[in-house]
Design goal:
It is a single chain. With 425 residues, the chain is of the alpha/beta class. It has 2 domains: 241 residues, Glycogen Phosphorylase B (Rossmann fold, 3-Layer(aba) Sandwich), CATH 3.40.50; 153 residues, Glycogen Phosphorylase B (Rossmann fold, 3-Layer(aba) Sandwich), CATH 3.40.50.2000. It contains 16 helices and 13 strands. The strands form 2 sheets. It has a 7-stranded parallel β-sheet with strand order 3-2-1-4-5-6-7, covered by helices on one side. This is Glycosyl transferase family 4.
C-alpha cells in the first residue's frame, strides 16, 4: 500500500504563474516512487493569474481536499481592483510612483496580515486537517510557501499531532526583496522573524530551491536543510520554427526593480549603429511588465522593435521559448536576490535557445547557467561585455549557427527531483 503525504499549497490549477508548476509536477511523479499525494487547497482562492490549460496536467488519481478561505484581496478590489491585482501578483511600484491607495494597501498588508493575507485560513485548516489526518493515516505533512502562512498550518499540526512535517520554501521569507516594501513597523518585522524562526526550528526537514537559501536557513536552524530546485518537464508541443527576426524574448513578470538599464541601453546602441540589426531585431515581452520597466525600455528602443505580447498560458510560453533566438532572464540587482532561481530557468535550459541572464554577482542562477553551458551571465554594469555578446549572437543568427550545447541537464528533470523528494518523505 502506498505511503500517503498531505501537501498543503495555495497555488494550484487553474492558477497561472511559476508558483503552480513545482508541486503540480511533484504530485505527478510521486506515485512512481510509492507515495500517494493528498493535496489540500483553498476552495475559493483569489489568483492574480489564471491558466485553465494547467487543469489538464492534474493526475486523475490524486486526492484533492478543498476548504473555504477568506480572501482580503477580494475585499480590497472594492476600493481598487487594479491596485489589488497588481500587489497580489507581486508587482509593487516604486515608492515615488505609488498611489495613496497602493501605499495604504501595502501598509495594511504588511502590518495587519502577518505573515500574509491568507492568515485567516490557518485556524480552520488545522481543525479540518487534524481530523482528516487521523482518519486516513496520513504519515507526512508538507507545506509550501509563499504564502508562508501555510507553514503555520504545518506548525500547529506538528504541535497537535506530532506528525512528520516538511516545510518547502519556494522563496525565502524575511529576506525576499518585496518584504522590505511592505512598510513594516518594528513590531511587525519582529513578528515575521519570530514566526520564521518557529517554522525553521520545528519542521522535521526544510526544503529550499537554492544553495544561497540553504546557507541562510542553516544559520538560523539546526534542522536538516535540503536543496531541491525547480526543474523542467518533457512537454509534447507542436513543431516550432525559429522566429525569422532576431527575437530576444523575456518570459514572465518584469517587476519595477528588475530593470537593467545597461541591457536596454546596449540594445538601443546596436539599433542606432547597425541598420540591418534595426531591421530584424525585436524585443518580445511575454508576461506582466511594470510601467517603470516599459518606460525605461522606451527611452532606448523604438516602438517598432518592441513586441508586447502580455500574459500567455504555460504551453504558449513554452512555444515562445523555442521560437525565440535568445531568452532573457533578469533578476533584481540585490544581495537578497542571489538565492532566487526562477522556475523558468530550467525550461529555458531545455528550449534549445541560448540564455542571456542579467543579475547580481555570485548568484545561484549564474552557477547553474555556467555549469550547464546554457548561456551567459552578466552583471548590471557589464555594458561592454553585454553589448559584445549580443552582437556576436546576432552575427551567429545571420549565419544560422546560433545554438546551445547544454550539459548535465538530467539532474534538473522533474522526475529526478521528485525522486529526491520521495527520499525525504
Amino acid at each position: 500500500m502506498p505511503k500517503k503525504a498531505l501537501i498543503i499549497t495555495y497555488y494550484w490549477p487553474p492558477a497561472g504563474g511559476p508558483g503552480v508548476q513545482r508541486w503540480l509536477k511533484f504530485v505527478k511523479y510521486l506515485p512512481d516512487f510509492g507515495i500517494h499525494p493528498v493535496v489540500y487547497i483553498p476552495e475559493n482562492p483569489s489568483y492574480p493569474l489564471l491558466d485553465q490549460t494547467l487543469l489538464d496536467d492534474i493526475p486523475e488519481d490524486v486526492t484533492i481536499l478543498k476548504q473555504p478561505i477568506t480572501e482580503p484581496y477580494k475585499l480590497a478590489e472594492i476600493f481598487s481592483k487594479q491596485a489589488s491585482k497588481t500587489i497580489s501578483s507581486g508587482v509593487i511600484p516604486k515608492v515615488k510612483k505609488q498611489t495613496a491607495i497602493q501605499k495604504l494597501m501595502l501598509y495594511v498588508r504588511g502590518n495587519f496580515f502577518i505573515p500574509d493575507a491568507r492568515k485567516a485560513w490557518v485556524k480552520p485548516s488545522v481543525s479540518y486537517l487534524s481530523e482528516y489526518i487521523n482518519e486516513h493515516q496520513i504519515e507526512t505533512v508538507i507545506t509550501t510557501g509563499p504564502p508562508h502562512s501555510l507553514h503555520l498550518i504545518g506548525l500547529h499540526l506538528k504541535a497537535r499531532l506530532g506528525i512528520k512535517w516538511i516545510a518547502d520554501f519556494r522563496d525565502p521569507w524575511t529576506t525576499i526583496g518585496y518584504h522590505k516594501k511592505l512598510k513594516l513597523s518594528a513590531s511587525a518585522a519582529q513578528k515575521h522573524e519570530h514566526m520564521e524562526k518557529q517554522v525553521l526550528t520545528t519542521a522535521d526537514h526544510i526544503i529550499v530551491t537554492s544553495g544561497n537559501t540553504k546557507t541562510e536557513f542553516a544559520a538560523k536552524s539546526n534542522q536538516p536543510v535540503t536543496v531541491i530546485t525547480n526543474g523542467y518537464d518533457y512537454q509534447q508541443l507542436p513543431k516550432t520554427v525559429k522566429d525569422q527576426r532576431f527575437s530576444v524574448a523575456h518570459i514572465g513578470s518584469l517587476l519595477s526593480e528588475r530593470n537593467p538599464k545597461a541591457l536596454w541601453k546596449v540594445l538601443g546602441e546596436l539599433i542606432q549603429e547597425y541598420d540591418d540589426f534595426k531591421e530584424v531585431f525585436v524585443l518580445k515581452l511575454i508576461g506582466v511588465v511594470s510601467d517603470d520597466v516599459l518606460n525605461k525600455i522606451r527611452q532606448f528602443i523604438p516602438e517598432n522593435n518592441i513586441d508586447i505580447v502580455g500574459y500567455v498560458t504555460h504551453k504558449e510560453a513554452l512555444v515562445h521559448q523555442r521560437q525565440s533566438q535568445l531568452l532573457l532572464l533578469i533578476e533584481i540587482d540585490s544581495e537578497d536576490t542571489k538565492a532566487i532561481i526562477p522556475g523558468k530557468l530550467f525550461e529555458y535550459m531545455v528550449a534549445e535557445t541560448p540564455i542571456v541572464a542579467v543579475g547580481p554577482p555570485d548568484s545561484d542562477v549564474e552557477g547553474i547557467i555556467k555549469s550547464t553551458n546554457t548561456g551567459r551571465y552578466f552583471g548590471y554594469h557589464s555594458e561592454p561585455e553585454l553589448k559584445a555578446h549580443l552582437f556576436s549572437s546576432y552575427e551567429a543568427y545571420k549565419k544560422s549557427t546560433l545554438a546551445t550545447h547544454p550539459i548535465g541537464l538530467q539532474q534538473y528533470s522533474r522526475k529526478a527531483l521528485t525522486q529526491k523528494l520521495a527520499g525525504l518523505i
